[in-house]
Specification:
This protein starts with 14 loop residues before the first helix and ends with a helix. Strand 6 and strand 7 form a beta hairpin. Strands 1-9-8-5-4-2-3 form a seven-stranded mixed sheet, sandwiched between helices. Strands 7-6-13 form a three-stranded antiparallel sheet, with no helix packed on it. The chain is an alpha/beta fold. The structure holds pyridoxal-5'-phosphate.
């Protein structure tokens, strides 16, 4: 037995991030200030949108996006069945109803052929998820839903991804990103909302800060000490700190290098796993730039081992794996409160049982990659 241990994901942070967070600590400006503004501007530039609004997570960015669009009780929002639970929860936070649509077995993303039958006169928005870093086919989606339904990208996994020459973040009306340590760039916790609609961005900014409207300043520019902000809307506190943003600026500058390295490693995996007919490797349709938040395989029916057994054997060898994600309709809360029938989403159910993410991150060595492949090959030899 070997002592090697390969974690599923590991953030790539080091001395540059450490140096960067010293500035807000030194100046004492800890909550959203100059660092947040710089991070927002750099993020918007990189994703070719006019505005970015930093938040405490992608979950809160999704809630802000839907709230700023005016989604509320009586509205329906289409979400893929196979996704992190936050996508659907954000719809519930607004008092609206998530309507699940199954995903495609090859891309793991929402099946645009099934959208039409899920639409009703109450459908106000659809949230395509760019799962594991591969953009959903937003062009096909838009053709299905028409122009009156808002497209809200769940780009949690997709910093730096693109569809054609359009980066994730600019494919819909508004998009939401995550900087959780499981994603390719991180601020610990953190998120970003992007849009090229200035009014929507202004609204999201106000809602991020309790719905506060800036007090009017007199012409000489000095704020009057006794004037407090007014509150037009029921807002939230979803503000990112300057400490997080200082780290985010450094991480963002590394994003393209991270993706290039992940892309090379993903291709290496795919060529070395190709001999296993029972293990399906991820698909990258032409014209898509995959950001490789995760490398997710599928253990096919008829494999020498079922997925769970393979995962156990890999764990014994120190190789960490995870199921791709949930089929949200199987989760107790959704079964109980929305009374959704999980069997109506057969592809999502099957992916929940058969998908397996294997380690892919920027702290892995080539020996680690070889070890993962060897361990998979060895696990079926006894
Ligand atoms: C990680 C993730 C989220 C939530 O991101 P947080 O920043 O942790 O709130 C939402 N949707 C998808 C698809 C994710 O993978």
């Amino acid at each position: 037995m070997t002592a090697r241990y390969v974690p599923i994901a590991q953030p790539s942070v080091g001395d540059e991030e450490w140096q960067a967070i010293r500035e807000p600590l030194r100046s004492g400006w800890l909550t959203g200030g100059p660092q947040v503004r710089s991070f927002e501007q750099a993020f918007a530039r990189r994703h070719r949108v006019s505005r970015a609004v930093a938040t405490t997570s992608c979950t809160t960015a999704l809630h802000l996006a839907l709230a700023a669009l005016g989604i509320g009780p009586g509205d329906e929002v289409i979400v893929p069945a196979f996704t992190w639970i936050a996508t659907a929860n954000a719809v519930l936070y607004c008092g609206a109803k998530p309507v699940f649509v199954d995903v495609r077995p090859d891309t793991f993303n929402i099946d645009t052929d099934l959208i039409r039958e899920a639409m009703t006169p109450r459908t106000r928005a659809v949230i395509p998820v760019h799962l594991f870093g591969l953009c959903a086919d937003v062009n096909a989606l838009r053709a299905e839903v028409g122009s009156s339904v808002f497209v809200v990208e769940d780009a949690a996994c997709a910093s730096g991804a693109a569809l054609g020459d359009v980066p994730a973040g600019g494919l819909g009306k508004v998009a939401c990103f995550s900087f959780h340590p499981r994603k390719s760039i991180t601020t610990g916790e953190g998120g970003m909302l992007t849009t090229s609609d200035g009014d929507l961005a202004d609204h999201a900014e106000r809602l991020r800060n309790h719905g506060a409207t800036e007090p009017k300043r007199p012409h000489d520019g000095e704020p009057l000490p006794y004037v407090m902000p007014d509150f037009d809307d029921l807002g939230y506190n979803y503000r990112m700190t300057d400490v997080q943003a200082a780290m985010g600026i450094v991480q963002l500058a590394k994003l393209d290098a991270f993706i290039a390295e992940r892309d090379a490693c993903a291709q290496w995996y795919s060529s070395h796993l190709a001999e296993l007919a029972w293990l399906r490797v991820p698909t990258v349709p032409s014209g898509f730039r995959h950001a490789w938040q995760a490398y997710v395989t599928v253990v096919e029916e008829g494999a020498p081992l079922i997925r769970d057994e393979l995962m156990m054997r890999l764990q014994q060898r120190g190789v960490e794996t995870r199921p791709g994600t949930h089929s949200v309709p199987t989760v107790s809360y959704y079964r109980k409160h929305l009374r959704v029938d999980p069997s109506r989403y057969p592809v999502s159910m099957s992916l929940q049982e058969r998908s397996m993410a294997i380690p892919l991150h920027n702290r892995m060595t080539s020996d680690d990659y070889s070890y993962v492949v060897e361990s998979i090959l060895d696990s079926i030899r006894f």
